[in-house]
Amino acid sequence: MDSQTAVAPHSSPDPSTAGRLKPDSLGVLGILFFVLSAQAPLTGIAGAVPIAVVIGNGAGVPAAYLAAGVVILLFSIGFVAMGRHVVDAGAFYTYIGKGLGRSAGSGSAGVALFAYCAIQAAMYGLYGATVSGLVEHYTGASIAWWVWALVTMVVVQVLGAAGIEMGAKVLAVFVLAEFSILIAFAFVTFFKGGGPEGLGLADSFSPDAALQGAPGVALMFAVASMFGFEATAIYGEEAREPRRTVPRATYLSVAVVTGFFAFTSWMLVSAHGASRATAEAGKALEGGDAAGWVFAPIAAEFGAWTGDVLPVLLATSLFAGILAFHNSANRYLFSLGREGLLPRGLTTLNGRHSPWAAGLVQTVIAAALVLPFALLGKDPVLTLFSWFSGVAVLAMMLLYFLTSVSVVVFFRRSRADTRPWNTLIAPVLGALGIAGAIWLIIENFTTLIGGDRTTAVWLQLTVPAVLVLGLVVARLTRGARTVTD
Asked: For residue 195, what are the β-bridge partners?
């Protein structure tokens, strides 16, 4: 295969890195910030936790986050084992291709790209609505949500082309801001002994608490909140000592994300009181302000100033997530171009070794997904955000499952790693847990997207449709790649 990459004018990269993203650019913490940005901590806490409390298992929601973390950890063990033998910006599709064959890998590449572009478009919807509301509140100017979304697409494109180091620095600032205030609140509440009913450890983590209500729904939201941790492998080519950095970043990401969501949600339940948390979350949802359930106890603890700061941090949280998914998606496009599955022009790098051409295409895709909702006058939160985030989570869960199966097949065939726990037991347990999560998501998809049953079915069908489309593209391009090779 022709591995030479076209380089933008006026750039003169080292020939040894032609066709590659910039190596030795990211350490463990840099990758961690990209992962935490994709998680959008404040968005996940303020958007998902109140809903999970109301329609899930009430005060037992923190236990659902722990359970989801265990499933993801089991998946990560096989994921990391594969990553020690495969380093590629394509991550999922490369891993799946190694075990289940090139066609399956190519089909999954389409699903991965679809998932990242869909979740980014969803975040543009919520981001546009949030910024529009903030601007109107502080200035009185009423500017449509989609205007802010389009302006931000340009900013994201520029930052993405500026290089991975610049993106990591920008994300670090935003993530630290939102992460710090939530963790500070959680620790203050914990050391004060909790809320009006104490810490309520048994109320949130006992078996009875975990299994009350609809624990499956809570687990579904918890798994959805983990979306994005797998990006650790996407940055393998740009990591320092990837065979050590990526595993460390993966395990650290899973531990931090799980601990953060479980601990913060526990302290929020405690702050309201376990016996009253569900009712108060229900009132917040009925009033159309789910985030108020989260913001109110923080304001009570730190002061009214947080009422002005937290909505701004919600906007920056979404911006950080948008930038993180832009970087993930353009690296998939770059890798697919390098493999010959998409035009090789996508492998064009600029002087900073950034895949600017792939980034430009990704930005166009984002605009194509967002603009129809603007033109049709749809609510950006109730439709764009809800629909696309739901379908993205379903797509990503399918990739997790296929990757776990591929890990088992790859190591049984290659014997490159004979550790049974890492290459067989943990991946199988992870696959079973993920299969259960997929069933829960499908069963409760209407709830997840906040829509009707017909819309839910059509959105679910897009995932297998994209998988089939990827398989077809792989078949059509196989001959061309063989000739090139």
From this structure: 198
φ/ψ of residue 237, rounded to 5: -65, -25
Amino acid 148: pLDDT: 95
C-alpha distance from residue 455 to each of 111, 365, 448, 480 (Å): 19, 22, 12, 38
pLDDT digits (tens, 9 = 90+) for 449-475: 877 889 999 999 999 999 988 888 777
Q: What's the pTM?
A: 0.83
Handedness of CA 60, 66, 69, 74 (dihedral sign): negative
Name residue, tokens 């199988």: 428
Separation between Cα atoms, residue 341 and residue 472, nearest integer Å: 11
Query: Is residue 342 a contact partner of residue 93, using CB atoms and an 8 Å limit?
Result: no
The rounded distance, in Å, linking the Cα atoms of 275 and 465 is 45
Give 322's contacts (C-beta < 8 A, 6+ positions apart).
120, 123, 124, 127, 152, 156
- CB atoms near residue 283 (< 10 Å): 13
Give, as one character, the DSSP assignment of residue 141.
-
Instruction: Note whether 59 and 209 are within 8 A (CB).
Output: yes
Fill in the amino acid letter for 423. T
Q: In the chain, what is the greatest distance between 2 CA atoms, to the nearest angstrom?
A: 71
* Contact status, residue 467 vs residue 108, Cβ threshold 8 Å: yes
pLDDT > 70? residue 233: no
Q: Which residues, 6 or more positions from 320, have their beta carbon under 8 angstroms from its beta carbon?
A: 37, 40, 170, 171, 174, 175, 178
C-alpha to C-alpha distance for 258 and 93, rounded to whole angstroms: 25
Neighbouring C-beta atoms of residue 480, cutoff 10 Å? 11
Q: Which residue has the tokens 């993203």?
A: 21
Cα separation values, 130 from 135, 136, 142, 308, 457, Å: 9, 10, 12, 13, 28
Query: What confidence category does residue 66 fall into, taking pLDDT thresholds of 50, 70 and 90?
Result: very high
